[in-house]
Model the fold of this input.
Amino acid sequence: MTPGPLRFEGREVPVFDGDTVASALFRSGVRTFSRSLKGHRRRGLYCGTGECPNCTVTVDGVPGVRSCITPAAGGMRVERGRGWPSAEHDLLHVADLAHPLMPVGFYLKTFIRPRFAWRMAERVIRRATGSGPLPANAPATRTISRHVRCETIVVGAGIAGLTAALEGAAGGERVLLCDEFAIGSRLAPGPTLDAVRALETRARATRAIEVFERHAALGLFDGPTVPLAGSDELVQVRADRVVVATGATESHQLFPGNDLPGVWLGRAASAMAALHGVAPGRRVVVVASTTEGVEHLQALVAAGARVVAAVVPAAFVDEVPHETEAIVDGELVEARGHGRLRSVIVRELGERRRIACDALVLSTGLGPRDELARMAVNETVRLVGDVALEADEPALGGGYLCLCEDVALHDAEQAWAEGFRSAEILKRYTTATMGPCQGAMCGPALSCFARGRAEAADMRSGARTTARPPLRPVALQTLAAPVHEVIEKRTGLHDTHVAAGATLGWSSGWKRPISYADPADEYRAVRERVGLMDVGTLGRFLIAGRDATTLAGVVFAGRIDDLEPGRSRYVLALDEGGYVVDDGLLCALENGSYLLTSTSGGAERMDARLREWAERLGLHVHVLDRTSELGAILVAGPRARDLVGGLTDDPIDAASLPYPGHRELTVAGVPCRAIRSGFVGELAFELHHPRSNGPRLWTSLQRAGRDMRLSPFGLAALELLRMEKGHVYLGQDTLPDDTPAKLGLARAVDMSKPWFVGKAALERLAELPPTRRLAGLVFEGAADGAELRGAPLTIGAAVVGRVTSAERSPALDRAIGLGWIRGGRDGFPSELRAGNAVARVVPTPFYDPEGTRIRG
Amino acid sequence: MTLEIACPNCGERAHTEFAFGGEERPHDSPDVAADFERVFHPSNAEGPQRERWYHALGCRSWFVLTRDTRTNRVG
Done:
């Protein structure tokens, strides 16, 4: 704990050892901890176990923190959330006087007409309610997610939970024992704490028991799986058996004045006195009808609190300390006071009697914390200890049913009169049990209310409402932990790009240069001179072994067995539905093996696919993923051969290294495999090299290309270059059910092969008339093209397609694009509209259709 | 959904490490008609089903297991 005082609304509040935020504030005189949601009624400490909403405050900018279970630390900034101008002097308390104007279900009844009224009312309501604004621009802390396996998980480390864990371990089970708090930390000294400490010592000495303190169970899922939220992690526990030992909450009693600051549940009051050394009041009245209640009474007196009267059943009268007046078999009628408790009315032997006091401590029954058990639809759970009890029936004499949502008993009665006659629909109409406590306080009372009024035959009317995760308030960042991991992949040239001032962006998990300065200049360099691009993100696979050709022939739709060493071929991978899932370039090597380059985003899928078919067909194949060990630089442009030729002694003329082909070269002293590639539509060499040599090769190329006014280029220029060639970006221009024919890639399929993945489907699909295809488009009447991306393609009023890519092409000096078009009985349309522009269907490539520049 | 999957190489792991590869159906005939049956008419069993799984975030091996599609119990 950080020593020193905490800051509470501008003043310093001293913090003592073991203090919670609530105990430190209470000691310094704070009685009103929050204002209620609707009526802005004062609310003080009540449950002390983190279940009721009363003690929620804003700590270091985070609203909704339950101060009674949050350890205090020096330097904390604590404020109360609701209330204007402050929670202490809250003018919005007038809302409480307006309670009759905001009847139960008022969302459904008021401000409905005229229509504009709701929008105005909502603005006011939004501002008046809520726990406070979320912190803006708060630095994200890291929450991790992990999986833990055990045989038995025991939720709750009280006497019952510890006992169950020890029994399980003795029976040879691996046990995980969890509790939302540190074991025993919320108990006042007494026989219960002694018993817990004795069991705790044994449990900690038992190797088969793993203890997770301060980890709150959030729910129960199939498996069974129980996720636990710790302060900085989400632990997903998979178990064979679930033991629920979550105990019970002290009953929330309904009587007039039951929500006044100064009304406490026994656990909160005894912990405040015995653990934190602060009496809950100067004059305390205790109402105890359970053995636990008597323990609380004794703990209060032992800690020095002045208990003026104790209302107890006759059986407990001997347990009442002599300095306290025992009121035997009395009945609590009402709590009185304005903004804080002043007195209670007790009926004793038929007589009403007023006792002046400033604290009323209630320990009158138990309601099981059985939410996990009620969630167990497909799983069986074992209940041990108090959680297995039937709920005691709380008194329903008036006051507030639901503290979170400000639902009074008379609201519930009115809802009943309006015809909402079971706990489930009373919940929906009144919003009782929907607040932060999720029914921990009011759930048993709501069911009891419904049960008491329902026809005897209608058993479901009084059933507890459905329990749903999360059981405890949890930060979204904790829940997001499993999907939050973002792994930034970098190529070997990352630092080079950063030093060059490149704008970096995400592209399928990689950080890649979007551009270095001006994409238009970069584009011109490639078309007119020479450009360099880092393509180290491409997937690279070595496919070797006796059956390498067979595997390639199965996974790829085109012909493979005639590919000569030194030559390359564009290949398409289909799924079994005949749909295009990947493409790549397959390079045949001298020894019967292949080097495959695949798309940057599809490398993992390609790896899985190759391994799948090698395994299914039992082939003699080795698949080696070389993606991370090889860098690659694309040298593209009319002067690419001059540039590379100046740095190598190996022959790279069109005869020695033709298109499409590849060979080993030593460029600037770096061993490379050069692949002639056609993606950007110019003479181009992909230089695949050992990754660590990347910066050296890049620098050598840049230096040698200075006279040619070489420029590095990024993804922005690449987009324009590939579009002019009509090349398809899988994922951007394609849909999940695209066959090669729809994409205009039928040339990459060899239907004469006996079998390949997807062939059966393609044969069937070939019998259907083509209904949709990807087409090249030129736009008239569009200045830029970029504004047309995603635009619908229309004929008259009918939408018959969509633009998937669009750019202004400098080579054609007009806007071009790719897009889907649907055909009818008379074939495909040739002219459509895209917004205000006319879209004319044209063959692709747009640029250099014969491909003479690529072959160069 | 939470599944626990025993990878033959890596042992029991959380399902988030794996990719699903569909129902396992014998692939033994190059006959296109039979292949069409295999691809487009899965049995879609209600109950135990043999399935292919890929340990994507582990050893990258493919294997076959039996899962009950009603209860998600594996093995």
Notes: Residues 115-128 of chain A form the longest helix (14 residues). Chain A has 23 helices and 47 strands.
